[in-house]
Amino acid sequence: MKIITEIAEMKEFSHNLKKSEKKISFVPTMGKLHKGHIRLIESAKRYGETVASIFVNPLQFGQGEDFDKYPRDIEGDEKILSDLNVPVLFYPKSDIVKNTDTFIVNPEYSKNLEGLFRPSHFQGVLTIVMKLFCIIEPDFAFFGLKDYQQYALIKKMAEDFFLNVKIIPVETIREESGLAMSSRNTYFDVAGKEAASAFYKILSSTADLFKKGEKSAEKLKRFAVKELIKNGFKVDYVEITDPALNRKYQNAENGDILLAAIRYKGVRLIDNIIITVPEFNSGTVSN
Ligand code: AMP
Q: Which fold has domain 2-170?
């Protein structure tokens, strides 16, 4: 596997791929790779020559967040990527964000959900993703549905700026317990991880209530919040909205998405689930 750390070299590499008419499939990550990342890479490989990136992006961490202690394991990550036959890893030096004066913002959606709790987070995410797109010029880019709002905002950015990249969503990969895989799960010990798995179980039970006929968004959210608190979680938010994250309404509808963020033992987790009645279940989110 080729490891590229310089912007100019990465640009030249992509340029040469394009000259040879190869499609570029791009998977941006912050490293400490797990099975969720691996699923993104497996999807990417089906679309073209795969470039993965690892960069713990300081722009997307707020004050007092875990930038300094965010798990890093470049050697383990390199092994995982080369075992997957990924041809190129872009592992940029931090000068990729140093001295940045221009930022990408989506003022409307960055203030909802995660944006309310992490005010500069999506500005940091959109800016780094735009930078990476400018360097790598991918034809396809892969984002996990676990970070649903991130996926939705990146898709909108690509549309708003007429980018020549197709944003492809990838399903959430979970532990057997249901807990969504996350690099931050390494903050937990075994018992903590087991306890944290109640988070997804509660989202699933809430989706079950909807299946059984409860349509009031307020009642569904109240149920979820009550259960989350009962299990020792601090709740940042529980929301139900449409897949475009637009709608404010009283009744939940088929295909809506239930999103939540909680804190447990000092670790902040997000997750979501699509709420459907069985006959509606399309199983996919449209691109
Ligand atoms: P991160 O390294 O946490 O910034 O994540 C890099 C990419 O992997 C993002 O598109 C995430 O949405 C995606 N991702 C993270 N966890 C999972 C998961 N459990 N299943 C699928 N994709 C994931």
A: Rossmann fold (3.40.50)
Concerning whether 37 is annotated as a catalytic residue, the answer is: yes
Architecture of domain 183-280: 2-Layer Sandwich (3.30)
Q: What would you report as the CA-atom Rg of the chain, rounded to the nearest whole angstrom? A: 19
Distance set, CA 258 to CA 160, 209, 252, 285 (Å): 26, 12, 9, 14
Q: Give the DSSP letter of residue 100.
A: -
Dist. CA 139–CA 116, nearest whole Å:
32
Distance 146 CA to ligand 1 centre (A): 7
Q: Is the CB of 29 under 6 A from ligand 1?
A: yes
Q: pLDDT tens, 184-241?
A: 999 999 999 999 999 999 999 999 999 999 999 999 999 999 999 999 999 999 999 9
Where, residue-wise, is CATH 3.30.1300.10 in the chain? 183-280
DSSP-based helix, strand, coil % in the chain, nearest 5:
45, 20, 35
Q: Cα–Cα distance between 247 and 279 in angstroms, integer?
A: 23
